[in-house]
């Protein structure tokens, strides 16, 4: 019984992350925003998909998830009014209507299969300084970089880049590190229990 509990807990905490880098998307407050998940992350439709948001200094929150073979949408109540997700082919997008400053943060597309939850690359949503009176959560300084597309595009900068994410990515990494530590500890305990049971049976014989 105890071994079953440990195995269940071990499977529950398996989390993977994508190796892709953080994308940056700059918008204006009040506009409608579309955030896209990378197509390579969506190719296998045997997964269930969802979107998470991580705000500064907070744990990731579920925004919306797709249910019933990704045909229907189920919202977290906090995001029910202005957020929606759609999946068409290999295009998974998150739509935000009439953005407000509190919408800034890092958004992750997530896929789930059996007991494994995998985070795709994050998209950091920030707002132009001219439309915001508060300091944005992330300070970005790009030197000798080139941006592609308009203000609603995801950016890739070449050259010397300084990205100071004040806790967004760090918080996620801390969570994942702790999950890895817990997972390792669970495996060690399981092996120890199995060894003890084996030794007891051997002694009884």
UniProtKB/TrEMBL annotation:
Location in or out of the cell: Cell membrane
Signal peptide per UniProt: 1-17
One matching Pfam family is V-set
Q: Which GO terms describe its cellular component?
A: plasma membrane
Which BP terms from GO are recorded?
immune system process; response to bacterium
Record domain Ig-like: where = 30-109
The domain of life is Eukaryota
Keywords tagged on the record: Cell membrane, Disulfide bond, Glycoprotein, Immunity, Membrane, Signal, Transmembrane, Transmembrane helix
Q: Which InterPro entries match?
A: Ig-like_dom, Ig-like_dom_sf, Ig-like_fold, Ig_sub, Ig_V-set, TCR_complex_component
Membrane spanning residue stretches: 175-200
Q: What's the protein here called?
A: Ig-like domain-containing protein
Q: Which organism is it from?
A: Astyanax mexicanus (Blind cave fish)
Q: Read off the lineage from the record.
A: Eukaryota, Metazoa, Chordata, Craniata, Vertebrata
């Amino acid at each position: 019984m105890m071994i079953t509990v440990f195995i269940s807990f071990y499977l529950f905490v398996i989390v993977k992350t994508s190796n892709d880098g953080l994308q940056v998307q700059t918008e204006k407050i009040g506009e409608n925003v579309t955030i896209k998940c990378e197509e390579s992350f969506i190719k296998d439709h045997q997964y269930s998909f969802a979107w998470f948001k991580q705000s500064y200094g907070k744990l990731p929150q579920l925004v919306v998830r797709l249910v019933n073979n990704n045909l229907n949408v189920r919202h977290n109540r906090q995001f029910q009014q202005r957020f929606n997700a759609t999946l068409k082919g290999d295009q998974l997008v998150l739509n935000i209507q009439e953005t407000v400053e509190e919408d800034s943060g890092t958004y992750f597309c997530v896929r789930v299969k059996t007991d494994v939850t995998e985070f795709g690359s994050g998209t950091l949503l920030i707002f132009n300084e001219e439309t915001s009176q508060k300091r944005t959560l992330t300070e970005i300084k790009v030197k000798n970089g080139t941006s592609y597309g308009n203000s609603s595009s995801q950016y890739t900068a070449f050259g010397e880049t300084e990205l100071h994410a004040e806790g967004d990515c760090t918080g996620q990494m801390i969570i994942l590190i702790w999950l890895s530590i817990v997972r390792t500890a669970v495996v060690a305990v399981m092996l120890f229990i199995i060894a003890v049971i084996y030794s007891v049976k051997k002694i009884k014989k």
